């Protein structure tokens, strides 16, 4: 579980579950429309969803 670093809302965990806990975690905030990557060392990277969709 992780709260959004921008608005504080609870974020959606995209690549994990109770049985699968990967070292790099991907989250999405549905309120401020950002994607957050939490690396194994605790580093947090954020990016707007529009930029990610345009890159695909």
Kindly describe this structure.
With about 55 residues, this protein is of the alpha+beta class. It has one domain. The protein is built from 1 helix and 4 strands; from the N terminus they run ββββα. The protein has one helix spanning about 50-55; strands spanning about 10-15, 25-30, 35-40, 45-50. It has a 4-stranded antiparallel sheet with strand order 1-2-3-4. Strand 2 (about 25-30) and strand 3 (about 35-40) form a beta hairpin. The model has no long low-confidence stretch (mean pLDDT about 90).
Mean pLDDT, to the nearest integer, reads: 88
Rg over CA atoms, rounded to whole Å, is: 11 Å
Contiguous helical run count? 1
Any idea how many domains? 1
The structural class is: alpha+beta
End-to-end Cα distance, whole Å, is 27 Å
Low-confidence spans: none
Number of strands: 4
Strand order of the largest sheet: 1-2-3-4
């Amino acid at each position: 579980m992780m709260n959004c670093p921008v608005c504080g809302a609870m974020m959606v965990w995209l690549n994990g579950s109770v049985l699968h806990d990967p070292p790099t975690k991907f989250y999405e905030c549905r309120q401020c429309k950002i994607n957050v990557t939490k690396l194994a060392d605790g580093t947090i990277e954020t990016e707007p969803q529009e930029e990610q969709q345009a890159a695909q």
